Amino acid sequence: MTLALHFSSPPSLATTLVELLAAFALGALIGVERQFRQRTAGLRTNTLVSVGAAIFVILGARLFEIDHGSQTPITIVAYVVSGIGFLGAGAIMKEGASVSGLNTAATLWGSGAVGACAGAGFLGEASLATLFVLASNTLLRPLVNRINRRPFSEESSEALYVVYIICARNLNVDIRENILEILDDTGFPVRQMDTHLLGSDEMEIELTLFPTSVNVEELDAAVEKVEKLSGVRQAFWNARDET
């Protein structure tokens, strides 16, 4: 297979320059806000994502002009979106039941969309997309903070419920299965189970339930059933906002 060299005309190169400058400037604008807030993906990352997306879209358009084959610009855009999805997944971190980096990943996705628009020559759309990404990260922040400062209502809020069980370290496996069955049968399926050693002969089982709105009395009744099982010395629960 012979590799052909393609030399773009000055007008095409000028158009590419304008599109890349737009992707660079708009991606940097999003990145400045992220850098100011000390986020994982800051100025350089958002700028690179935007410029990179623009380059791939420009490349797809140029190749389509040369050879009207199967790799249309739309196909290239689809590949770019998939690639940014993997990049965003790398920014998401999970520690126990806590997940962080979702907003960073979503911002990277937005930067990629801005770059794709710029690379396709839709500079107006790229500018509008930038404004909406920035608005999502700035204008909505006071509303989020106000909602988070509201008193937490266990009865009506979707929350993260955690059941704690203090039991003998050599607790029978069947008893553990009984605990899970009791919670599941009463409508509180367990999402995650962790154990922590306490002293020389005890341990704590931490059962994180799926976030839901629950009836407190029903959860109390389920925990009471668990506490009556052989080997279980204490059982209790608490609730906190899902983060």
TrEMBL record:
Presence of keyword Transferase: no
Membrane association type: Multi-pass membrane protein
Database matches in Pfam families: MgtC, MgtC_SapB_C
MgtC-like C-terminal domain residues: 161-237
Top-rank taxon: Bacteria
GO cellular component: plasma membrane
Location in the cell: Cell inner membrane; Cell membrane
Domain called MgtC/SapB/SrpB/YhiD N-terminal: residue spans: 20-145
Keywords carried by this UniProt record: Cell inner membrane, Cell membrane, Membrane, Transmembrane, Transmembrane helix
Membrane-spanning ranges: 12-31, 43-64, 76-93
PANTHER family: PROTEIN MGTC (PTHR33778)
Function according to Swiss-Prot or TrEMBL: Virulence factor required for growth in low Mg(2+) medium and for intramacrophage survival. May be involved in regulating membrane potential by activating Na(+)/K(+)-ATPase.
Similarity comment: family membership: Belongs to the MgtC/SapB family.
Protein name per the record: Protein MgtC
UniProt source species: Acetobacter lovaniensis
